[in-house]
Amino acid sequence: MTLEERKELVDFYLGKVVDIKIDRPIGYIHKKGEKTLHYEINYGYIEGVIAPDGEEQDAYILGVNEPVKEFVGQVIAIIRRSDDIEDKWVVAPENVFF
User: Fold this and answer.
1) pTM score
2) Average pLDDT of the residues of the chain
3) Taking phi first (over 0 means left), then psi (-120 to 50 degrees means alpha), and beta for anything else, what does residue 42 get?
4) Predicted confidence band at 29 (pLDDT cuts at 50, 70, 90)?
């Protein structure tokens, strides 16, 4: 996916309401080799939205301070990483930040 296509995807979804499946809830501990990641926020993916890496789009959930399995919220920001083709989306309860 080109940078232009990434921008178009972001432009389309920014401000939209999405349904997220949480696969790493608050408190989740992820071991990767010798590293251990402790999730301080809910983290999941948006089913059916394919990210530039070919996987479903990842999302961080803000404004929810307890572990959840699913979440419906508004895309409020996009984290574009210069060292990776995959963006991370930031989602919050509807109409909190817009």
Assistant:
1) 0.85
2) 89
3) beta
4) very high
